[in-house]
Design a protein that fits this description.
The complex is a heterodimer of chains A (356) and B (266). With 356 residues, chain A is an alpha+beta fold. Chain A has 8 helices and 20 strands. In chain A, the strands form 4 sheets. In chain A, strands 6-7-8-3-9-10 form a 6-stranded mixed sheet, sandwiched between helices. A 5-stranded antiparallel sheet of chain A has the order 13-12-11-14-20. In chain A, helix 2 packs parallel to helix 4. The two termini of chain A are 27 Å apart. The relative contact order of chain A is 0.11. Chain B is mostly helical and 266 residues long. Chain B has a domain of 173 residues: MetI-like fold, CATH 1.10.3720.10. Chain B has 12 helices and no strands. In chain B, helix 2 crosses helix 12, helix 3 runs antiparallel to helix 9 and helix 7 crosses helix 9. The chains are: A alpha+beta (356), B mainly alpha (266). The interface between A and B is medium-sized, with 28 and 23 residues.
């Protein structure tokens, strides 16, 4: 991204008593991007977002918006808004009242406020619901009120805390598309917290993966999927087979790894020295069934434990000689192996990565 | 609920229980319509006792004193009680928080005679002339605990992210409190106020200790009169008090049941 940085997070640490919620996180967010903070619950992603919003202050480090330090500025004076996980709609106010709440303090005159409110009602497709109370709305409508309320002040950055978490599956997918479309149209920087990797992959321009308070990797969905920085990222983003082994030879781009049973394979490697215990990540779709009697590089002997026909392909679960389970996604047309059958799996060294 | 049928035994038990609880009260109401001056002899229906109330200057003065004290003490108890609830729920783990929470129950269980006596000693020690002010102070000490308990229950269930949303949308902490928090906890605050009001209106013991000349409350007047013989007039006053308290309790129950927004949403 060559657009300008809107939020700069510098070496931020936050502790709650003895527990470290956010550990030395540095991250730049570009103007207009859709950034997802992804991680399991308790990884610190919500705390990091709450520090951007101003509900928590970092113990160490700085958070800058447009080059100005935000630390110490109360939330009401930060030009960014947040959409809360529970929506936090004011139950004693109507849809209009909720959306207009922030507008009343935005320094706009009455006519501008009314115009902005009408615009938000239209964008959120809430026409006809203006005088309803939150308790009278469906989950999807409440979600749209919360979004409209947070966007009404035209924030520099919109923070979204698990915005789709309360919706059911089918509604969530259509809402994802709407959210993405809205973000592209408004050009507002969106920062979203989620634990759902599918959601992050389909919405984000860039994903930041957090684990135990640390930011492990930040990059485009393709980057984090194809070049995960760690075993954790590999396993968290998409399905991954992690085959344990030891590096025996290191080349500029590739490394040669010996598995416990003596099999040697090759994979792309950015780190690691000979002797290091590592894992080789191979995505299920990059494994294919090879004819057992044809020798070649990167072959794994395995026994089929289960198969499932998926329409456009076959999902195979197999067990390696080492006892490790492995998942294969064979494309349509491949003959479906039988349970208990001995198979040979092959993969390109390019598609495999050494992770530590 | 509807599936379970009441057996004859249950009906009998229920009827006996209700009769035990409300029989005496019902008797008071019935005899307030007695045409006879003697409390124990039924001489036909009459509303004379109620009409006589308005002409009874001493009684009207006692009623006026009671209402004034109830209003003032309920207002003060509501403000102090709500502030105390906010401190206890929101204040984090400050020193003595557990002790303060426990102390809330003391006025509820302490015999009123003891509270009254201790207040009397305090007023004497402070050389505070006893009158309506001291009665009101005494009632605040009792009612504040009730208000705190009621408001506390509501605050515990309050979603803090509502306040954060208000802050996020540009409201100062004070604006967020008055614009969002207070309207949402208002039913509990209202219930607390009504409880405080009725507690003050009903109280005899504390008032007896804390009052001085010219500050006779209605219960004190009724008690004084009843010792000289129960008249239909006393029954009529009592009936009106019962009606007032019952009405308040129904209102409190409705307020406490009311979920924020649910009842507004109509």
């Amino acid at each position: 991204m060559d657009s300008k940085t809107i939020i700069r997070i510098q070496t931020v640490t936050k502790r709650f008593g003895p527990a470290v919620a956010v550990r030395n996180v540095s991250l730049d967010l570009a103007e207009g991007e859709f950034f997802c903070l992804l991680g399991p619950s308790g990884c610190g992603k919500s705390t990091l977002m709450r520090m951007i919003a101003g509900f928590e202050e970092p113990d160490e480090g700085r958070i800058e918006l447009d080059g100005a330090d935000l630390v110490g500025t109360p939330p009401e004076r930060r030009p960014l808004n947040m959409m809360f996980q529970s929506y936090a709609l004011f139950p004693h106010m109507t849809v209009s009242g909720n959306i207009a709440y922030g507008l009343r303090r935005g320094g706009l005159d009455k006519a501008e406020q009314a115009a902005r409110l009408a615009e938000m009602i239209r964008i959120a497709r809430l026409d006809g619901f203006e005088t309803r109370y939150p308790a009278q709305l469906s989950g999807g409508q409440r979600q749209r009120v919360a979004l409209a309320r947070a966007l009404a002040r035209r924030p520099r950055v919109l923070l979204l805390d698990e915005p789709l978490g309360a919706l059911d599956r089918s509604l969530r997918e259509s809402t994802q598309a709407e959210l993405k479309e809205l973000q592209a149209r408004l050009g507002t920087t969106f920062v979203m917290v989620t634990h759902d990797q599918d959601e992050a992959m389909s919405l984000a321009d860039r994903i930041g993966i957090m684990q135990a308070g640390s930011l492990i990797q930040a990059g485009s969905p393709r980057e984090v999927y194809e070049r995960p920085a760690s075993r954790f990222v590999a396993g968290f983003i998409g399905a991954a087979n992690l085959i344990e082994g030891t590096i025996i030879r290191r080349e500029p781009v590739f490394a040669r790894i010996a598995l416990a049973d003596g099999t040697e394979i090759e994979a792309r490697a950015e780190t690691g020295e000979p002797g290091d215990a590592v894992a080789v990540m191979v995505r299920p779709e990059h494994l294919s069934l090879a004819a057992g009697d044809v020798p070649g590089p990167n072959r794994l002997a395995a026994t089929v434990t289960a198969t499932a026909f998926l329409g456009d392909g076959v999902s195979i679960r197999a067990r390696l000689a080492s006892g490790q389970d492995i998942r294969v996604l064979a494309h349509g047309g491949a003959p479906e192996p039988l349970r208990g059958e001995a198979i040979t799996l092959a993969f390109a060294a390019d598609a495999a990565r050494v992770v530590t | 609920m509807s599936a379970a049928r009441l057996s004859p035994l249950n009906v009998t038990a229920l009827a006996l229980g209700l009769a035990f609880l409300y029989g005496p009260i019902l008797l008071v109401v019935v005899f307030s319509f007695n045409a006879s001056r003697l409390a124990t002899v039924w001489a036909g229906f009459s509303t004379g006792a109620y009409r006589g109330l308005l002409d009874n200057a001493a009684l009207m003065s006692a009623l006026w004193t009671s209402l004034r004290i109830a209003l003032v003490s309920a207002c003060v108890a509501t403000v102090l009680g709500t502030l105390a609830a906010l401190a206890l729920v929101r204040g984090g783990r400050f020193l003595g928080r557990g002790m303060f929470t426990g102390l809330l129950y003391v006025p509820l269980v302490l015999p009123e005679v003891v509270t009254g006596l201790s207040l009397l000693l305090l007023f004497v020690a402070l050389d505070l002339g006893r009158g309506t002010v001291t009665v009101a102070i005494a009632h605040v000490t009792l009612a504040m605990s009730f208000v705190t308990l009621v408001v506390q229950a509501r605050l515990i269930g309050f979603d803090r992210s509502l306040e954060e949303a208000a802050r996020d949308l540009g409201a100062s902490p004070l604006q967020a409190f008055f614009g969002v928090t207070l309207p949402i906890i208002a039913p509990a605050v209202g219930a607390g106020f009504l409880l405080a009001f009725t507690l003050s209106l009903d109280d005899l013991v504390l008032a007896s200790f804390a009052s001085g000349p010219g500050s006779t409350t209605l219960p004190m007047y009724v008690f004084g009169q009843a010792r000289r013989g129960v008249t239909p007039e006393i029954n009529a006053v009592s009936s009106l008090l019962i009606a007032a308290v019952a009405l308040t309790l129904v209102t409190v129950t409705l307020l406490m049941k009311r979920r924020a927004g649910a009842s507004l949403a109509r």
